[in-house]
């Protein structure tokens, strides 16, 4: 009964309700003009597929499997890439919080620091007027997690992955580091590696923050539309587009 309710909700609430409305328009158009109806049906099916976790998991999973997490760390500095932060939101020791993937990256890097004792560079600035400065927030939170302030080097000017790489390379050169251990979300790692190589660095990839389970299971609710699947599909497509652009426009 629980899964039946979940199935019903997926087509009553957004985004599933829009698929139902579009299919209703297909039926309505079919009576008068079949060619537009067929085009609308094709668009509706593509939209529906993008809303399912079976498609979103396949897309994001193919990115996540390109690099494996190493069993041993080989580097002289941990580099964490930002991925979003809020400003003005309450935290235990101040204001501003890392969001979603960025929080997972931060937590993984803090645990990695405890294993290795390597200094930490966090790269990420304030992308929008109402978002937090990622490196500044991360520094406060890393200190709150027990990492000494002298072991944290914030790089708080970067607005995208390309700038992450360029600004991190400059900061590493300034402090005498040459072998970065790159910590970012597994889906973001392929594009990040390309950008860091363009910046003259050869990092050891340490992917974290996995979105797709392994192995992937198939069950009925994998084929129902959900807002989470739409978000994951969009995230994966953004990474594919960015990866192509990074390779074609070094």
Automatic annotation (TrEMBL):
Domain named DUF218: residues: 76-242
Cited InterPro entries: Cell_Envelope_Assoc, DUF218, Rossmann-like_a/b/a_fold
CDD domains found in the cross-reference section: YdcF-like (cd06259)
Keyword terms: Membrane, Transmembrane, Transmembrane helix
Record bears the keyword Transmembrane helix: yes
Signal peptide: none
Gene3D superfamilies listed in its UniProt record: HUPs
Protein name, UniProt field: YdcF family protein
Organism: Paenibacillus phytohabitans
């Amino acid at each position: 009964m629980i899964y039946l309710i979940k199935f019903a909700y997926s087509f009553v609430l957004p985004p599933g309700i829009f698929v139902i409305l579009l299919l209703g328009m297909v039926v309505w158009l079919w009576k008068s003009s079949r060619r537009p109806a067929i085009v609308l049906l094709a668009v509706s099916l593509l939209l529906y597929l993008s809303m399912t976790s079976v498609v979103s998991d396949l897309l994001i999973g193919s990115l996540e499997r390109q690099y494996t997490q190493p069993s041993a760390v080989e580097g002289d500095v941990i580099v964490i890439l930002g991925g979003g932060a809020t400003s003005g939101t309450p935290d235990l020791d101040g204001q501003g919080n890392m969001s979603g993937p960025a929080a997972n990256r931060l937590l993984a890097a803090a645990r990695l620091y405890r294993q290795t004792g390597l200094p930490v560079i966090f790269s990420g600035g304030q992308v929008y007027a109402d978002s937090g400065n990622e490196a500044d927030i991360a520094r406060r939170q890393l200190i709150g997690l027990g990492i000494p302030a002298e072991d944290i080097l914030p790089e708080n000017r970067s607005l995208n992955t390309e700038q992450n790489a360029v600004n991190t390379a400059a900061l590493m050169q300034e402090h005498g580091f040459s072998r970065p251990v790159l910590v970012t979300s597994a889906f973001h790692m392929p594009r990040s590696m390309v950008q860091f190589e363009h910046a003259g660095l050869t990092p050891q990839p340490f992917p974290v923050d996995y979105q797709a389970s392994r192995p992937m299971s198939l069950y009925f609710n994998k084929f129902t539309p959900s807002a989470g699947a739409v978000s994951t599909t969009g995230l994966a497509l953004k990474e594919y587009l960015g990866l192509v652009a990074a390779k074609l426009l070094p």
